[in-house]
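In this supplementary section we document a worked example of the pipeline. Step one takes a protein sequence of length 220 as its only input; no multiple sequence alignment statistics are reported here. Step two produces a three-dimensional model, which step three serialises into structure tokens for compact storage. The input and output of this example are shown verbatim.
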Amino acid sequence: MAHIDFLQTVHTRTPRNYVQRVVEYDKAECATVSRRFDKDYWDGDRKYGYGGYNYDGRWVAVAQRLVEHYGLQPGARILDVGCGKGFLLKDLKNVVPDSSVTGLDISRYALEHAVEEVRGHLVEGTAAQLPFADNSFDLVVSVNTLHNLRVSELESALRDIERVGRGAKYVVVDSFRNEREKVNLLYWQLTCQCFYTPEDWQWWFERTGYSGDHSFVCFE
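The serialised model returned by step three reads:
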């Protein structure tokens, strides 16, 4: 298990006004709407989430890094837990010839508005109960998803990711390393249920037997 950051360029390119979310808006109301994970969250007003989540190629570099680091070969089977509209899967499919990609997300809206290239490979469901057989995938990724689960669901999700992956695994979760980053996270987040320090996340990985790699998104 190792800490590997494939996402820094994606995370830092997004401007964020932390204070605005708690001063100009009703944060509780916005979070309630966001946790429905429907149109408002993906393509509605920015106060509810992405403010329009459209493919712009930003995941291409991430896909390339994942493929190079884990040595994925043609025909690899790949699962994205919390795939959203399937942008990363689209890019992984393009980088790895003849790969078999599968995405799972709780949001029916996201799946219905996914990019056409992967729309037939997506499943509606929860990360806490993956509907796949043991050792099914050569790479399992989960980016900015697991922190949206409650504690019991988080434990189940990490155990299930370990169960269905026969090869590489990589998860990315929100975290904080100091009080400033904790405040920024609390101001900015809309859907988080579990957010911990890197040390506490490490405790979770060890508790659940998760053997894959990981990275943290911290709001500096």
